[in-house]
Amino acid sequence: EELNRLSLVASANENGVVFTKPNGQIFWCNDAYLHLTGFLIEEVLGKTPIELGKCEETTDEELLKMTIPFQNGKPFNVEHLHRKKNGENFWVNTKGQPIFDSNGNVVQYFAMIEDITEKKNADFKLIESESRLSFLIVNLQTGIVLEDENQKLLLANKKYCSIFGFDENPDALIR
Questions:
Q1: How many Cβ atoms are within 10 Å of 78's Cβ, its own excluded?
Q2: Residues 108-161: pLDDT tens digits?
Q3: What is the DSSP string of 96-141?
Q4: Using alpha carbons only, what angle is made at residue 32 by residues 26 and 35, rounded to the nearest 5 degrees?
Q5: What are phi and psi of 50, to 5 degrees?
Q6: Cα–Cα distance between 159 and 137 in angstroms, integer?
Q7: Distance (Å, rounded) from C-alpha 120 to C-alpha 95?
């Protein structure tokens, strides 16, 4: 009964779920993984998640954050780009977890793949907005200083330094 419940959770999960052998080959995935990636079940089984998901933009650092813990039987949690069958990329958060036998040997790996594309796009837009705002403030012809709630200086512009007779670059005031 418990096994049936766990199977239902993995099958019905909206995130992609894959189970791999200790060598990394996928032997089971849920429909959500197939939907996220666009692959067919026969294209997934026997492949590794890296074979399926690695794209040109995948960095060595991202791969190492997954492969080293995997090889050492440790969990991992990595945000990275994942390739779809059609060649498009999407952002995912992959959480991998080893499953051990009674002797402490890894018998399989379980990974959950969550599509975080909307979150990453919102983060990128926020960073772009902050950059534009900083550029505007730095180049204003009015002295501006920006502090956080603890009165820590976050930003000052050249005009502010000029008004108060500071010879330093505005960035030197920020600690």
A1: 16
A2: 999 999 999 888 878 788 888 888 887 777 777 788 888 889 988 888 888 888
A3: EEEEE-TTS-EEEEEEEEEE-HHHHHHHHHHHHHHHHHHHHHHH-S
A4: 95
A5: -70, -40
A6: 10
A7: 17
Burial class from Cβ neighbours inside 10 Å (0-12, 13-18, 19+) for residue 171 reads exposed
Q: Whose CA is closest to 37, among 93, 94, 96, 83?
A: 83
Q: What is the pLDDT of residues 82-111, one digit of tens each?
A: 999 999 999 999 999 999 999 999 999 999
> CB under 8 Å to 116, separation ≥6 — which residues?
79, 91, 92, 93
Q: Is 55 helix (H, G, I), strand (E, B) or coil?
A: coil
Identify which of 29, 86, 91, 32 has the alpha carbon closest to the alpha carbon of residue 57. 91
Task: Provide CB contacts within 8 A for 142, sequence distance 6+.
Answer: 159
